[in-house]
Amino acid sequence: MGELKALLLDMDGTIAETERDGHRVAFNLAFAACGMPWNWDEAHYGRLLRITGGRERLMHDMRSRSDAPMLSSDRDELAATLHARKNLEYAQLVAGGSIPLRPGVADLMRECLANDVRLGIVTTTSRSNVEALMRVFFGPDWQKRFAVVVCGEDVQRKKPDPEVYQRALAELKIGPLAAVAIEDSPGGVAAARAADVPVIVTRSEYFPNDTVEGAIAIGPGLHTRSGWRPALMPHPEGDTRVRLDDVAYWRQRMELVSELA
Ligand code: XBP
Ligand code: MG
After folding, report:
1. What spacing in Å lies between the alpha carbon of 177 and ligand 1's midpoint?
2. Where are the domains of the chain?
3. What is the pLDDT along the chain (261 residues), one digit of tens a residue?
4. Is 10 marked active-site?
5. Strand locations in the chain, DSSP E?
6. Angle, nearest 10°, between helix axes 244-253 and 105-114?
7. If 204 and its partner were Cys, which of 10, 106, 146, 184 is the partner (CB 3.0–4.6 Å)?
8. 3-state secondary structure of 182
């Protein structure tokens, strides 16, 4: 196996916990602003997260609501309006700084850049949401850190389809085994695997115990060396987080681990 050339990071749930206190709240603000008597509580939103893409999620939810428009063309229009409003609300919400980076993410990113491992964002969220959040974390020139940023608008089919990963690899001009992905959801893992990209899973709030099959590592987050499969040894310098050499170790070992729900 050649050298590791790129680390491809999913956004929602992986770089930051954006769903419960970000997108969900923004959807509810959009419902209120558009006069819809709907409210997605935390549990309902968790179930809806099986549908990737905010507009697709709205369309799915409307199918089980008696107060949603009857005609599918009217539903399409309403979903588009609500989704656009949701993304505006989301941008305002995250601009306030209430959503932090997941711990360990910034350190691993820094280490990659210092070791000529390029960084990518591979997400099926809208580009405006990536822009809004990354600006908060890394300032207006945030994009300089990333060799590639592939978002929902750039693909025909969202995760779990592999298109978003295939596109990132094509832009980076590398093969799948020269990259490692970090994901949190079953759909994200499926997308990376279908593109043949080795994937590490950092469990997130909404996908704490979901079935994951065929990851090179599964663990609670990049902030800790505990609780990982395959296990990590204590670091000789006393570092407590996941480091780039741990990613390299899992990648070389390429033992596929699964956790069934
Ligand atoms: C992200 C999504 C997105 C976000 C909301 O999935 O499914 O739909 O929930 O963003 P992943 P949009 O983490 O696998 O990329 O409303 O812009 O779709
Ligand atoms: Mg995710």
Report:
1. 25
2. 6-17+101-260, 19-95
3. 789 999 999 999 999 999 999 999 999 999 999 999 999 999 999 999 999 999 999 999 999 999 999 999 999 999 999 999 999 999 999 999 999 999 999 999 999 999 999 999 999 999 999 999 999 999 999 999 999 999 999 999 999 999 999 999 999 999 999 999 999 999 999 999 999 999 999 999 999 999 999 999 999 999 999 999 999 999 888 899 999 999 999 999 888 899 998
4. yes
5. 6-9, 118-122, 148-150, 179-183, 199-202, 212-215, 217-219, 257-259
6. 80
7. 184
8. strand
Nearest atom, ligand 1, residue 191 CA: 14
Q: What is the dihedral of CA 105, 108, 114, 117, to 10 degrees?
A: -100
What does the alpha-carbon distance between residue 13 and residue 19 come to, in Å, rounded to a whole number?
Answer: 7
Residue 119 · residue 112 · CB < 8 Å: yes
Pocket of ligand 1 (CB under 6 A): 10-13, 19, 23, 52-54, 123-126, 129, 152, 159, 185, 187-188
Q: State the distance from the centre of ligand 2 to the C-alpha of 76, rounded, in angstroms.
A: 24
Ligand 1 geometric centre to CA of 59 (Å): 14
- Supply 164's token pair: 């978003």
Reduced to 3 states (helix: H, G, I; strand: E, B; else coil), residue 32 is: helix
Cis peptide leading into residue 234 (ω within 30°): no
Residue 69 near residue 38, CB atoms below 8 Å: no
Pick the CATH number of 19-95 from 1.50.10.10, 2.60.40.3210, 1.10.150.240, 1.10.3130.10: 1.10.150.240
Closest by alpha carbon to 107, among 222, 230, 234? 222
Class of domain 6-17+101-260: alpha beta
